[in-house]
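> call design_seq(struct)
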């Protein structure tokens, strides 16, 4: 099971924190700070998997992360999840973000957090992986975008035909 998903920058500013278990905000902040401290101090040439005994997430949990430019993508999982499977899932998540935002950046994650949460919810539901097919994820996101767009003002009022006649 996936216990949490985090995105944060090199300076430790959280850009997305999603916990799939009931924790109070102080515990969430403590877990985030400890994970940031562990990951930020690790050299780039070390493995991207950290056992939970070395952190606050506890024994039996693992931290799996990838770094893309200035952002760290972190998944905290238990023993039932495959490390390489989650490592690949992070890649799928980033590719889905990249398709949605066309070269995703930290600013895209900041200003479009609702869409980032929606993409994550397409991939992970209640701590379980629900979809890994990139075309299905992209299709669902594009359909949601179409539904979220407000109708054109002139078409809603029925004035489109009048405007065409006066031009």
């Amino acid at each position: 099971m996936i216990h949490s998903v985090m995105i944060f920058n090199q300076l430790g500013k959280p850009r997305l924190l999603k916990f799939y278990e009931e924790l109070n905000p102080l515990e969430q902040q403590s877990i985030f700070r400890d994970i940031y401290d562990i990951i930020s101090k690790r050299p780039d040439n070390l493995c991207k998997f950290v056992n939970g005994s070395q952190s606050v997430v506890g024994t039996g949990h693992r931290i799996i992360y990838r770094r893309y430019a200035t952002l760290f993508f972190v998944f905290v999982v238990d023993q039932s999840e495959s490390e390489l499977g989650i490592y690949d899932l992070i890649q799928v998540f980033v590719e889905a973000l990249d398709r949605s935002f066309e070269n995703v950046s930290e600013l895209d994650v900041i200003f479009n957090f609702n869409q980032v949460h929606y993409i994550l919810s397409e991939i992970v539901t209640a701590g379980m992986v629900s979809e890994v097919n990139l075309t299905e994820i992209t299709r669902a996101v594009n359909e949601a975008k179409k539904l979220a767009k407000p109708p054109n003002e002139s078409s809603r009022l029925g004035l489109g035909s009048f405007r065409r006649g006066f031009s």
